[in-house]
From TrEMBL:
The keyword Metal-binding applies. The lineage of its organism: Bacteria, Bacillati, Actinomycetota, Actinomycetes, Kitasatosporales. Residues 51-155 form the Rieske domain. This is Rieske domain-containing protein. The keyword Iron applies. It comes from Streptomyces graminofaciens.
Length: 421
């Protein structure tokens, strides 16, 4: 059945979707049009699996977070049996929003309007002044599809979520399990409003072509070689590449010793739930994002035993990326607000027994990525201004921007599938 009855598209928008130039950035309306933004919410964010929160943020029964995506609002919580559940944030009486807070803890869910009351499993237990014929079990909260993978929580707003998620979860969980994110502790969390379309945020993340010039703090730990091969490394980067090769050998030995998986998964645009997993060595000491690759937390994550364990990097389409290190993990989530505004949430996780002020210092733990996020915020805002300029036209991606091209391919492919099915 066609989806067009939900959102009518102009012939111009359909033409843009059907005629996207492969290897080039997207046309300006993809970044600035309200019509395409509304399509993005409906066809991408309301149909695909979205990274939404971590189990560490809902550690105890009754703990919840709320997630707002366009007109949708979702409650994600841990129920009294310690299962993770998700519900529409809408009372079944007259539609009041149940929870306004971004996070918190509840015994039951009580509507602030007329006090309809629901258990944490979504069942209705109190509705005042109803007739004897009232069937309480018909008016539980509307569930939302939810899955946990290695301590990460994903939701899907669609009635029929993509079926390939089981396979993707099976592929990535072995990489996540040793870090034990389920039992980690939230050390810090920041929401950053970016003055740019959500796709510009994701495209900026999907390449490090700009890292050498824009992120001096980040590349004290990272090798600025993303997208390069041994054959096309420039003379300027040759010493860096040789240092990288030595660090990669050390990381391979560390993984072999701990039986950590070494396969690289690269399926960002060849399946519905696009993803990428790679394990990268770090420069200097090779441990973390401290100066010269030094650790930033004294306690190692989960069952990790070697501090020099590089960076497990994971990308998930359409809205998230992750960095897992021996001593902490950082998870990133992007949600659209308007055609030219997005919210990036960054969450730093440490071992549950790590003590602030003893094992880690929040400023040191978060310094590199707080700085990097702010630098990226400026770059994204500048690009948003540029794509809105009448002088903008799509430009060609470079040889080291394969992941940006893959993101654009995935995005256009999903839009095309949606509007033609």
């Amino acid at each position: 059945m066609s989806h067009m009855s939900t959102l009518k598209l102009t012939a111009e928008t359909e033409s843009l979707i059907n005629n996207r130039a492969v290897g080039y950035s997207l046309e300006a309306p993809f970044y600035a049009s309200q019509e395409i933004f509304d399509l993005d919410v409906e066809a991408i964010f309301a149909k695909h699996w979205l990274f939404s929160t971590t189990e560490a943020e809902i550690a105890e029964p009754g703990d919840f977070v709320t997630v707002d995506i366009g007109p949708h609002s979702v409650i994600i919580l841990r129920d009294d049996d310690e299962e993770v559940r998700a519900f529409r944030n809408v009372c079944r009486h007259r539609g009041s929003r149940l929870l306004d807070s971004p996070c918190g803890s509840v015994g039951n869910l009580v509507c602030p309007y007329h006090q309809w009351t629901y258990r944490t499993d979504g069942s209705l237990i109190h509705a005042e002044s109803q007739p004897p014929s009232f069937e309480r079990d018909r008016f539980g909260l509307k569930p939302v599809h939810v899955r946990t993978v290695g301590g990460l929580v994903f939701i899907c707003l669609g009635e029929e979520p993509p079926e390939d998620f089981d396979e993707v979860a099976g592929n990535i969980e072995p990489y996540l399990t040793p870090y034990d994110l389920r039992h980690a502790k939230v050390a810090h969390q920041v929401d950053l409003v970016e003055e740019g379309n959500w796709k510009l945020v994701m495209e900026n993340n999907r390449e490090c072509h700009h890292c050498d010039s824009a992120h001096p703090e980040l590349i004290t730990a990272y090798f600025p070689l993303f997208g390069y091969t041994a054959d096309d490394v420039t003379p300027r980067l040759r010493p860096v590449f040789e240092r990288y090769q030595a660090a990669a050998e050390d990381l391979g030995a560390a993984c072999a010793a701990s039986q950590f998986p070494r396969d690289t998964w690269y399926e960002p645009d060849t399946r519905i739930t696009g993803f990428r997993v790679s394990h990268l060595p770090l420069d200097g000491e090779g441990s973390s994002f401290g100066p010269d690759g030094k650790p930033v937390c004294a306690k190692l994550m989960g069952s990790i035993t070697q501090a020099r364990f590089g960076d497990l990097s994971m990308h998930m389409q359409p809205n998230s990326w992750f960095h897992l290190l021996s001593d902490h993990a950082i998870v990133f989530r992007v949600l659209p607000v308007s055609p030219d505004k997005s919210i990036v949430r960054t969450t730093w996780l440490v071992h549950s027994d790590a003590v602030e002020g003893v094992d880690y210092d929040v400023d040191s733990l978060t310094s590199v990525w707080r700085t990097t996020n702010d630098q990226d915020r400026v770059l994204v805002a500048g690009t948003q201004c540029g794509v809105a300029n009448p002088g903008y036209e799509p430009g060609p991606y470079s040889l080291v921007e394969d992941d940006v091209e893959a993101f654009a391919n995935w995005y256009i492919g999903r839009l095309h599938k949606y509007v033609t099915s």
